[in-house]
Amino acid sequence: MGTRDCGHISGESSPGIGEAGRTSEWRNVMPVIDMDKCTPTRQNKSTCFLCWLYCPEAVVSKTIPVQINLEYCKGCGICAQVCPVQAINMVAEEKVVLNRTD
Amino acid sequence: MANKKVNKKADIQILDGNQAAAHGAKLSRVQVIAAYPITPQTPVTEKLSEFVEKGELNAEYVAVESEHSALTVCASASMVGARTFTATSSHGLAYMHEMLHWAAGARLPVVLACVNRAIGAPWNILNDQQDSISQRDTGWIQIYARNNQEILDSMIQAYKIAEAVYVPVMVCYDGFVLSHAEMPVETLSQEDVDQFLPPYQPHTILDPANPKNYNLVTLPNPRANSENVLCHGYMELRYLLQETLQNSRETIVKVGQEFGELFGRNYANMLWEDRLDDADIVIVAMGSLASEATVAADMLREEGHKVGVLGLRVFRPFPKSDVVKALKNSRLIVVFDKNISYGSEGATCSEIKSALYGSNVRAVIRNFIVGLGGRDIKARELTDAVNKSLPSLEEGALNNEYPEWICYI
Amino acid sequence: MNLDETEYLLPGNRTCPGCALSLAYRHILKALEGQAIVTVPASCLTVLHGMYPITSVNIPCVNTPFASTGASATGLVAGLKALGKKGLSVVAIAGDGGTHDIGIQALSGAAERQTDFIYICYDNEGYMNTGNQRSSSTPLGTISGTTPILGKQQNQKDITAIMEAHGIPYVANANAAYPLDLYEKVRKAKAIRGTRFIHVFTPCPPGWDFPFSDSIKIGRLAVETGWVVLYEVENGIFRFTSASESIARKDHLRPVSEYLAEQGRFRNITEEQISRLQDRVNTRWNRYLARADAS
After folding, report:
1. Which of B8, B5, B46 is closest to B25 using CA atoms?
2. Which domain covers residue B391, as residue numbers?
3. The pLDDT of residue C226
């Protein structure tokens, strides 16, 4: 199985999501947003979004309601710490088990 | 399809080797120059900065703070798509060692002039070829010049070769012996060189609209990209460099042929042959020593021996099949090395032996280490070494374990 | 806030959870609007960028050996100039190892030549990519892989002051825990010509030994204790920025010991070392106050 088809003569990399795999598999806790407390969601206004600002992984979206990409969130918990109204809780992963076929 | 030389009248100037190299870079319309002064290369840096400051060469001249940075500047500028040049010697070349590996692995057509000088310790500023020989494993094409015309001609051809195969090229010439000795050199016309050398087309893209990341960490095994196409592991990328070097002979000879058709001096060869057709004794030498060796051959012929000279021109890729062909009639091969791979022997001698193994050539090979640290080597000493080796045709091994040295110990 | 929503950092990269470099880089790229070529030496950033043939960032990037970042940027600038290509910033981004230590020569040379580029040093105070060995930016008293028992015996190099001494038009001290300040500084730097240097404090959870959810907390504590001062010097004029500006007006710093106590890397630090560090912070703070007054 040859590698010539890629056409590279040097180490040329192209952008892609999930370069390190499903990084959600790294975490023990995951963020859960209480939408009743989340300011932009509650007020239906583009405001706060500190979780989006401080997320090192760029997995929080600046949307109403605020959404977190749980495929890649590493569960660092920074969003929960910086939220000024404590709307985000870091919850043990095993409490929220998704259907997994692998 | 040969181009026609526009300027029929030859413009001959009296130039030393360094000036010839600088003229070669200028005629090649280099766009970024980064170099750090080191004896005996220094005049190259000065001449090029003079060309730039006078407006005769439209290039960015970067007065870098070290040789390691010099080659880095060239590599990154080459990534952007500029034609780049640097020059150095000895410790300077050693200082850029990791970048030599990097430029070759990144497949960048940088051209470097190496003004061959001895490496310390102890200090020595005079000529030998240990510096460039020490870098023979880095993946660069290495060409050695015998005289100042070859320096200028090789510089220009180097760009055409490098940019065709995406491998960096080192043009080597002997420090002081050539770099500071004046000879008549035809400086070609810019129009003619422009005909010969097309603009550089980079294989790298640095564009935010199509972002690529070059030379990231690789893994030992192949890995699929985001489109599930299997891409190289480190070993495959390195294989491609070797494959290109192995196949580059074709390009080197073709460029040499095209040069000859346009400028009248033919370089469609990997090595220089002098009177090999009827020679059974062959002197092998590289660089200016290959010229000196022809004088030694003259002297030996007067003594009644059939002596020829094999002047190595392209050292990397090493022209194994050309060497076997050239040496087919030889019974005694005397290899003079201005370098030594410590613990073993002279580098060109090892290459010759490696090329001949398995061929029909069954000659005695003798290796002499000469001229280290600028020790003068006269034709008489070359002939003495050959005469000393003659008895081994009757008795003695085909191959000695270690080389002899021509020095005062 | 009005930050552009475009993300240049793609999810699923290799950085540790809570990596402050990742956060800083996200905002640096936003400030550049992706209109840059970055050059990166061996470092944690190389790891963030991923492994061939996939990269986790939407920006053209040239990787370069460890000692050569300043020279690589020089080469990119020279190449772009030679080809007449305009409109792209050349941005070198290196860690403290690649900046203060092995890379300082090339950086100094590039600055001396007034190379038109931005150099950003992200400082996690150690050689973190190789598993936390001491660098010249590692603080006094720190336990690291190569100062495992006695802790580092020397103070940190003040790289921002060293770069300021090169007479370049813009130097700044920033902190990943203050992303808007960092964003503004990069935007400001983008508009200036010449060599621009930004030093970014990036707490490292595994290297400094604190929970990875606390990166912002540690970053803020550093500023509140004066351990890190947010400032910029534009053409020789000193100015506090962001939280350091308000702290300067009140002239109240929390004790450095509060910052040190949060991190396992200072577990062996002596009272004498803490005292020396407090003196150092105080002396430097007073010097900055005097500079701000004089501006």
Report:
1. B46
2. 271-405
3. 98
- Contact between C56 and A15 (Cβ < 8 Å): yes
CB atoms A10 and B226 under 8 Å:
no
Percent of chain B residues past pLDDT 90, beyond the cut: 96
Residue contact B79–C75, C-beta within 8 A = yes
User: Which stretch of DSSP H or E encloses residue A40?
Assistant: helix A39-43
Which residues of A are less than 8 Å from C56 in CB distance? 15-17, 19-20
State the pLDDT confidence band at C251, using cuts at 50, 70 and 90. confident
- Residue A16 in any domain: the answer is no
Domain that residue A37 falls in: 26-93
B228 touches chain C (CB under 8 A): no
Q: CA A94 to CA B354: how far, in whole Å?
A: 64
What's the CA angle centered on B56, arms B50 and B62, to 5 degrees? 50
- ipTM value: 0.97
pLDDT recorded at residue A98:
60
Q: Residues in chain C whose beta carbon is closer than 8 A to a beta carbon of chain A? A: 1, 3, 5, 7, 9-15, 17-20, 22-23, 26, 49-58, 179-180, 211-217
Confirm whether B369 is domain-assigned: yes
pLDDT tens-digit series, residues B213-234: 999 999 889 999 999 999 999 9
Contacts B109 to A, Cβ<8 Å? none
Euclidean distance between CA atoms B115 and B92, whole angstroms: 10
Tell me which CATH homologous superfamily contains domain C20-294: Thiamin diphosphate (ThDP)-binding fold, Pyr/PP domains (3.40.50.970)
Contact (CB<8Å) C23/A56: yes
In angstroms, rounded to a whole number, what is the distance separating the alpha carbons of residues B209 and C35? 9
Residues 6+ apart with CB under 8 A from B325: none
Q: Verify whether the Cβ–Cβ distance B64 to C108 is below 8 Å.
A: no
Q: A10 and B212: CB-CB below 8 Å? A: no
Helix and strand counts by DSSP (H, E) for chain C: 12, 9
CB atoms within 10 A of CB B276: 21
CA atoms lying within 13 Å on the CB side of residue B359: 20
Type of residue numbered B407: C
What total of structural domains would you count in chain A? 1
Give the CATH number of the domain where residue A87 resides.
Answer: 3.30.70.20
Q: Where are the beta strands (DSSP E) in B166-286?
A: 169-174, 182-186, 213-214, 223-224, 230-231, 271-274, 281-286
Q: Are residues B28 and B167 in the same domain?
A: yes
The pTM score is 0.96
- Token output for B119: 């490496």
Q: How many CA atoms lie within 13 A of B123 on its CB side?
A: 3
Q: Please identify, among B217, B239, B263, the residue that sits at the C-terminal boundary of a domain.
A: B263
